């Protein structure tokens, strides 16, 4: 590195000198573009360096390897001058004082040698700035100074001088065994490699092996060796991509399709990428993309039947023969997903799935990555080479949406990596009506990926072979280095944002150029015809064939009937959609199994040096299992996980600090205090358990990205309990897009189910506005159960839960938590579960369960008519009979406020007050509520909550409770008494004293002897 450090210093001196001579760097750059043929002379010559003949150079200049190599080569040359390359012959002649065949190099100075290397490096670092990337030729980029040989004091007379470049331990250009070349030849090669239709950005990667690998690919004299057969395939793929859009445009002139026109080379590019990936062992690709060109990708890349796409275009999406079945709300055609097996060029098959996505740009990114990771788990793809994700982005979105960065940052994390995602940016240089200069602060829209050491290939979208090459190279990179890579296709958008938009309103200059700009297909056809690679007949034949298939498919689309179950993957067959009844099975577990797994998860290895406090926790846990008493929240959760594992399911819990638990209650991973080793008890529930079968993982500090990832993961296989935990429920609002657009509505829009569980710590303990509320009200507002209609509540079937979009619970006992988690998998359908999870209940002395509440033994406390299962409502604990006429007040509540109400009731000896816990808020337990209403015929009915009136469950509960009351003749909504905090802008007070006061007022009022006025505010 000595030479490099020396060279860098020299460069700095040179820059400083130039700056002082010519004013500011920025003002000078514009006219200093150097081409090897047109040379801009330096304004003033620099000081002439003292010439040091090469023969006097020592190893401080040539590194050890090079000098040994040189000596060997010199010996070979001395025995036979013809045995070495001509350039070496020339070099040694000069070196040893023989007459050279061309102008000598012995006058080359150390400074020149160093500057030459800096020049080469400048191309490697900045060559992309000079690459011809913009098909429209409108881009105005300042070419960096150091791409001008004049910057290094070379002048025109140096062009045909030969220079010693060396054979450094570097791949590509500098390893070609041609140590002596003219400056002109060097520059020509550098321009060819770095400044053509592809601009390579890779010098930010701090790994020599990777850079050398890329140099080998980039600096080769023939990077794109496409023969005539390959060219015909590329041509045909481009014709498909182009004619597809033309066809849609002529058949549905006024429809929005967010066409790909201007970026059609994406289609051949993707196909080459997929073929190359298949050649290199990829069997499964999960694709995510937004609107632009989505239909084209669906039809031409994923191979969704064209007749189906056309049928959806004509509005025929509701399946005729499935009338009466659940079809959900559906979605616009350019959001739908699909999956197919596609044959590849190499004769293999590859499974492609395009994930359905909402409008929210880039939100699908982490979902795709999570799904890919799950595929890797289920196919034992330990090397992560068989399953891969491809994400297609827009330029505006890639630069602007934070989730792009959040997703990129998952790429290297052990429990989230997928061995590299390939990103393709369809960079049409505009976002709706916004120019790049208003949309981002960075040079390229892809700059965010540099943080991840991903190579970035910028490619001119008009050069289809360059696009194909960049795409293939990306596939090779991914399969070689198992990390992310970006292909940035610089193209344009021929029409408006959609087909009915007028682009001239906002980009008049650009669209003037676009109007007369030939399509990529026209350019390629012309190029192939001119070089005689194809004939006009060849082209006509392909075009006619494509057109006739499009027409046939169009005719067939008229009778096309969508098969709704097309989407079910193998893992999901047999799972019920909302109109197919499914029993919910009991969730109690045999007592022996509970004891066995209980011991496994509470015992630490003998020589493990756990922290003293952790040892105590585990000793206490062990006692809970042994005595069967006092089981706390953490143990209940671990028991749920362990029993599901024993039943053969996969369990995965991820989120911020979940391993220990935010509230230091979980301790699912223990750290040896001496060795730092980790031990996860849940990895040892069974003999030889696969370590990934139970995965618990601290995540990156991203809510949106990580939740999206887990959502995608959960959608792959129903036999898994996938949970995401928020640090505090409040922070889950960073993932709001996932709640709104995927979790609450995914099944309705796309018929895709997920059993994802969200654990959102919630509860008012005086910790201030941002540590109290998981915004229960938002989840309830998104629930789609009808507040005015009591559904069929047959106790063994309870179809209500199948027709509702998700479940929202606020559970108050460890046993009930155990059962609600197990219930997620013990049924033939999947629904998201939102848990308002506790904080102070984790250690609350009353919040304990006995092991007998977890088992399935008849007569045990958890066992009722249906067996042991999750309790949607917990009735009053005072042993009331079926009819209690003396109870004057029925307080309904949910969550930890129950314990505070109960304590207050005890302190005022309020025996005439009943307290019921609504454990499952959504779907609303009408049947159980009515049972309680009947039990207490004379009681005033109270809803009590700790959240402000405009938050919490009140707005959700009131109409439903009223509907239940009306049906049993117990009054109307006016008869529901509210006890809780008043309306508030902030979720909670920031003053602890105020909190305490509010809270004691709240519980006092709920228990006050006098009848309540409505509403009763704390
Ligand atoms: C989160 C989000 N914000 C705004 C929009 C509205 N919108 C749809 S497309 C678009 C422009 C996207 O530009 P770009 O990413 O460059 O893709 P292009 O349409 O140019 O292919 C916008 C702002 C959206 N769909 N999602
Ligand atoms: Mg764009």
Automatic annotation (TrEMBL):
Q: Would the keyword Membrane turn up in this protein's UniProt record?
A: no
User: What job does the chain carry out?
Assistant: The 2-oxoglutarate dehydrogenase complex catalyzes the overall conversion of 2-oxoglutarate to succinyl-CoA and CO(2). It contains multiple copies of three enzymatic components: 2-oxoglutarate dehydrogenase (E1), dihydrolipoamide succinyltransferase (E2) and lipoamide dehydrogenase (E3).
> A biological process (GO) annotation for this entry?
tricarboxylic acid cycle
Instruction: Tell me which EC number(s) this protein carries.
Output: 1.2.4.2
**Name of the featured protein:** 2-oxoglutarate dehydrogenase, mitochondrial
* Source organism per UniProt: Deinandra increscens subsp. villosa
Report if keyword Membrane is assigned.
Answer: no
CDD domains with a match to the protein in the record = TPP_E1_OGDC_like (cd02016)
Give the catalysed reaction(s), semicolon-separated. N(6)-[(R)-lipoyl]-L-lysyl-[protein] + 2-oxoglutarate + H(+) = N(6)-[(R)-S(8)-succinyldihydrolipoyl]-L-lysyl-[protein] + CO2
Q: Where in the cell is it found?
A: Mitochondrion matrix
The UniProt entry, under InterPro entries, shows: 2-oxogl_dehyd_N, 2oxoglutarate_DH_E1, DH_E1, KGD_C_sf, ODO-1/KGD_C, THDP-binding, Transketolase-like_Pyr-bd
Q: Where is the Transketolase-like pyrimidine-binding domain?
A: 631-844
- Principal EC category: oxidoreductase
Q: Which PANTHER family match?
A: 2-OXOGLUTARATE DEHYDROGENASE (PTHR23152), OXOGLUTARATE DEHYDROGENASE (SUCCINYL-TRANSFERRING) (PTHR23152:SF34)
**What Gene Ontology cellular component terms go with this record?**
mitochondrial matrix; oxoglutarate dehydrogenase complex
| GO MF annotations in UniProt | metal ion binding; oxoglutarate dehydrogenase (succinyl-transferring) activity; thiamine pyrophosphate binding
What protein family does this chain belong to?
Belongs to the alpha-ketoglutarate dehydrogenase family.
Keywords, alphabetical: Magnesium, Metal-binding, Mitochondrion, Oxidoreductase, Thiamine pyrophosphate, Transit peptide, Tricarboxylic acid cycle
> What Gene3D superfamilies does UniProt report for this protein, alphabetically?
3.40.50.12470, 3.40.50.970, Multifunctional 2-oxoglutarate metabolism enzyme, C-terminal domain, TPP helical domain
Q: Which cofactor does it need?
A: thiamine diphosphate; Mg(2+)
